[in-house]
Amino acid sequence: MSKTALIVRHVPYEGIAGFRAPVEAAGYDLTRIDVCDPAFADADLVSPDLVILMGGPMGVYERAAYPWIAHEIERLAERFDADRPTLGVCLGAQMMAAALGAEVYAGHEQEIGFHPIEVTPEGAATPLAHLDGMDVLHWHGDTFDLPAGTEWLARSGRYPHQAFRRGDSLLALQFHAEMGLDPRIDAWIESSHQSLGDLGLCPRALRGEYDARGPAVVRAGQAMIGDWLGRLH
User: Fold this and answer.
1) With a threshold of 0.85, does the pTM exceed it?
2) Residues 159-186: tens digit of each pLDDT
3) What is the total count of domains within the chain?
4) Cα(225)–Cα(215) distance, rounded to whole angstroms?
5) Close Cβ partners of 26 (under 8 Å, ≥ 6 residues apart)
6) CATH of the domain at 191
């Protein structure tokens, strides 16, 4: 029987991108749901064989403005109690941290653009090893404390908590190793001119860097995800 994978999208322009290929190659049938869909209120986040939580510009602490955040965290906590395989990217990683009881909060600065990932000694024995030392796309200003009972896997120069896992089933990534070929990067850039300007980043130069560095990042990200999925029981 085929396995089921549910993609949770917090905004339409942050999809699974380059991670689609290794997930499908591992035998998963993909479906997706947007948090703005009225059906999300009743969405089952526990029974899918795999849940993939993508990014978004909102903060986990903005629960009054985005009522679905509390609902998603509650459902994720149920999923984690059942130790069901879950992958989180950027906001998705922050949602995982919150569901595991950790604090998520605004960081000291925006981290946008391609910056190197350094894998921790614990991370070196995990699929994160595929990305060690690579310049990977970052696009966030929030961060989180490391949840109790998890392993710290990677850091960057600006933020120490870039990835964690709990056993083989839960993997949280603050960065975007799925992005590097997907043209939806143009929507990210268009919606972030203020943030880019504050950091002194040129949108055109960032787009050029995406074209130059992105393909190698996606290949490494796909290898990482394929390796992770291969370890699931």
Assistant:
1) yes
2) 999 999 999 999 999 999 999 999 999 9
3) 1
4) 15
5) 3, 226, 229, 230
6) 3.40.50.880
